[in-house]
Specification:
This protein is an alpha/beta fold and 298 residues long. Helices cover 35% and strands 18% of the residues. It contains eleven helices and nine strands. The protein has helices at residues 9-19, 25-37, 41-46, 54-68, 73-77, 101-108, 127-135, 148-161, 219-227, 247-257, 289-292; strands at 79-82, 85-88, 117-121, 140-145, 165-169, 181-186, 232-241, 260-266, 272-278. The strands form two sheets. Strands 5-4-3-6-7-9-8 form a seven-stranded mixed beta sheet, sandwiched between helices. It has a two-stranded antiparallel ribbon with strand order 1-2.
């Protein structure tokens, strides 16, 4: 029989964090215990000797065991906060990362019309599109994803938050209705298919289609940069997230396609993680190497 002393908040958390192998075992354990008890994380520190009912302790232990296997906390909770918005998540999409909020910040700082038309490519949970809609409800925002389950999930999040985002199924631009946008934003797959991180940590439980993009990680970025001008208004912007070591290559794609005012921006860790550029109709003729994937285009 389990003793009462082993059912206090602090005892349960101490046992869990001793077993959870992650960058933030205490945070993981507190989030899981908060989920099953309904208590706030601050209350665990204020009242560490608070006793937890057996049923809650057992539910917590089950979640801890799942976390020990590496299953992401977001999957165990069924949601992840992004831009202060509670988003439902599933194994069919990428879990929204805090650093992607930097992409939202850059987008919000661009000189866009009051009723800007915005496209979020590869929306996943809808995180980027919904964050933008929460700040600018007057914007006309379309979000697309190639995966049917992701489209359904993004629509659920849109409905739950009551935000005006149109979610459609499309593999990048292929199934979109004709139109032009003031801003195209995307956090596409950008990990090389041989990257060892794909077999480590939480990433193991996320869909490879949302992570991997060819031998150098740039296949989807090449396509997006190449086709985006056909969907942008004059002086419209393209903004993409990419790997910390891909900034030079991605900026090269922008320049080769004829984008102006190309810039690289940093994430919260001061790593080069975003590139943006403005499209102008006097842009240069596209470099054929963009479609070939030649090394010179990288």
């Amino acid at each position: 029989m389990t003793s009462k002393s082993s059912l206090t908040c602090e005892a349960l958390l101490r046992d869990a964090l001793a077993r959870i192998n992650s960058d933030s075992p205490r945070l993981d354990a507190e989030l899981l215990l908060s989920h099953v008890t309904g208590l706030s994380r601050t209350s665990f520190r204020a009242w560490p000797e608070r006793e937890i009912p057996n049923a809650h302790a057992e539910a917590f232990e089950a979640l801890v065991q799942e976390r020990v296997t590496g299953r992401p906390v977001a999957h165990l909770l069924g949601q992840q906060e992004f831009w202060s918005l509670p988003l439902k998540v599933s194994a069919s999409t990428l879990i929204p990362r805090p650093d992607t909020e930097c992409l939202v910040e850059v987008a919000l700082g661009l000189p866009l019309p009051r009723q800007a038309r915005v496209l979020d490519l590869g929306t996943g949970t809808g995180a980027i599109a919904l964050a933008l809609a929460s700040e600018h409800p007057e914007w006309q925002i379309t979000a697309c994803d190639a995966v049917a389950e992701a489209v359904e999930l993004a629509r659920e999040n849109t409905d739950a938050l009551g935000l005006a985002v149109s979610v459609v199924q499309s593999s990048w631009f292929s199934e979109l209705e004709a139109g032009r946008f003031d801003l195209i934003v995307s956090n596409p797959p950008y990990i090389p298919d041989s990257d060892h991180h794909l077999t480590e940590g939480d990433v193991r439980f996320e869909p490879a289609t949302a992570l991997v993009s060819g031998s150098d990680g740039l296949d989807d970025l090449r396509l997006i940069v190449d086709q985006a001008p056909d969907w942008l208004v004059e002086d419209g912007w393209l903004l993409v997230e990419h790997g910390f070591d891909q900034a030079e290559a991605v900026a090269g794609l922008f320049h080769a396609r004829g984008f102006k005012d190309v810039e690289t921006r940093q994430d919260y860790g001061n790593r080069d993680r975003m590139t943006l550029g403005r499209w102008s109709s006097d842009a240069a003729v596209p470099d054929p190497a963009l479609n070939r994937g030649d090394a010179d285009a990288q």
